[in-house]
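Bench notes, afternoon.
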Amino acid sequence: MLSLSFKIEFQIENIFSGNQNRSNKYNFKMKNFLFIIALFFFTNNYGQIKLSTIQGYWINDKVEMKDGSDLFGRFVEDSVYAEYRIDQNKLCINSSPIHRTNESCLDFTLINNLIKTSQYAGFIIEKVSNDSLILSEKIDDLTDDKLKRLYFRKQEVVLDNFKEEYKDQKNITASKFFTPKTNATIEIDLNKAFKNNYSNFELIGNFKIYPAQKKVKTAVTFSTQNDSSRIRIVKKIIDHSFEKWNLKDFQGYESIEIPFVLKSEITKSYWGISVIFFTKDLTEFERINGIKMEDLRKSSDYFNKALIAYDEKRYPEAVTYFTESYNLDHKNIDALYNKAAVYFESGDKQNACQVWLEISMLGQVNAKQLFLEHCN
């Protein structure tokens, strides 16, 4: 922006110094004219962003922390799938590529390049074009290593790219970015069908949608329980779902295959059926659902004990508690940062540097800067 501004000023200076024979009146008019051009250029490039340029459906295909760090901990779950719908005064976020029943919406006001969703939060529009959008979170009192930068592509562009890629194919496998959508929730239908008669089992399968034949066919390729009646229920619910699918962009294909994994679980605190689409990996449940609630509670307890020990300058205990907190919950990266801070404040620079190095190996920019600043 500075180089462009300099260029405009340089051109104006040369135009008005190039011909001394022109009248002062003409020079004044010309100067006003060029000033209006410069003002128009600045307003259109650096002023208020028009709502029309950000309206529509956007697919998030990349996320990083605002300071450039890799995603870590609970933020990783946010990178699985996200569809943002921007209307006149609402920002709606959908985390399911299959349906929109879990869509959540926020009212917003567009102020220059800020999508303001509340008094203290919003999204800064860093870049917008016909097919791409970059937003960064803005939350008062949070530093850049706690905020995300999100990269989006226009949904229409994403669909067109996939259509071009599959133009010579009749039978395709869907992905989270290119899939038919349903107006229902298969998980809810399955839970209703089991009528609270749950048991613990997992299965891997796929179903194919046949647009021309108007049918869905489900196949189960693996199950941890040889209960044919339960497998029949799963297949029946999915096989009878054809009328619930929007196939507008998929009529030209003979079949669209969607792989999935299913988990039925019954414990003292939880029971129900969960489904993850576009995968055949049962460990996805562990990566998405995270750690056990009991371990999460213990981790939080150790973290609080560590803070108390630190306040009372019981540094060895604080280190032990922060270590236990992180061991129970590897998403709690703040436990590692605090552990390094305790080491450093207590004079143990060597161990502080070791922990900062460990965190930097997890792709965290702030830890790398601390290591370079204090450990060379």
